[in-house]
Amino acid sequence: MASCGMTTPETLYRIPSHPYRWVGLFVLSQVAVAVLWWHLGWAWGLPALLVSHAVFVVPVFLPRARLYGPVLAQLPGAAPQVWLTIDDGPSDDTPAILELLDAYDAKATFFVVGARAEQRPELVREIVRRGHGIGNHSHTHPQAWFWALGPRRMAQEIGLAQRTLASITGQAPRLYRSVVGMTNPFVASPLRAHGLTRVAWSARGFDGVHCEPDATIARIVRDLRPGAIVLLHEGAAHGHNLAILRGVLEAMRVRGLVGIVPGAK
């Protein structure tokens, strides 16, 4: 089942409307700190300054934070459906993942890296041919410094991946996932320019790093419920991504949950 009747464009697509709204909030916060420092001195002003900056820094590392733009982290409604999302491909795992999804009659969205898609365009086309979705996951996946990218580099990462995927599939993605789930003040502007919605998750097992499959599956299954957005990965060095996906699909079958691609026809 590829469609999701409980979603509409209004509930699924959350394109930033005011990418730099945070600037006004930041200016107001610093004015308030200056006034406090002037009247009460450094003993109050310095802590207030640190807190005012933390308010704008911490959300960068919180995947579901909305300070720098809207994010979809849970499907609306209570239908027995979940959204499987698979990051970091295409990879050597992709063909086996597609076979496994077919075996369980499940659909997923693959958030792919543009440069990797350029190297293996046939895998991206096969994902689409089998009825799955394609999302933008940056062009080079700069996970160490993504949080600190400036506006020009951020626009390049998102825009180049968007153009690459549109060229391969014939259709520009409408969904985007930040590298390692992080964001920063300069993500929303290119998302608005390309009509992209930022997608986070509500269930994860940390399968992108070294992991023990059973424990990873248990962490995901703990939050596996109607409307869940499940974060999975492919091509990880530990080699367990297929086993983890199989465990999640088995849990979905037991719970009567269907893997869907929201908004698909």
Automatic annotation (TrEMBL):
One of its GO terms (biological process) is carbohydrate metabolic process. InterPro entries: Glyco_hydro/deAcase_b/a-brl, NODB_dom, Polysacc_deacetylase_ArnD. GO terms for molecular function: hydrolase activity, acting on carbon-nitrogen (but not peptide) bonds. The chain crosses the membrane at residues 20-38, 44-62. Its EC number is 3.-.-.-. It holds the Pfam family Polysacc_deac_1. Keywords: Hydrolase, Membrane, Transmembrane, Transmembrane helix. Residues 80-265 form the NodB homology domain. It comes from the Bacteria. PANTHER family: 4-DEOXY-4-FORMAMIDO-L-ARABINOSE-PHOSPHOUNDECAPRENOL DEFORMYLASE ARND-RELATED, GLYCOSYL TRANSFERASE-RELATED. This is Polysaccharide deacetylase family protein.
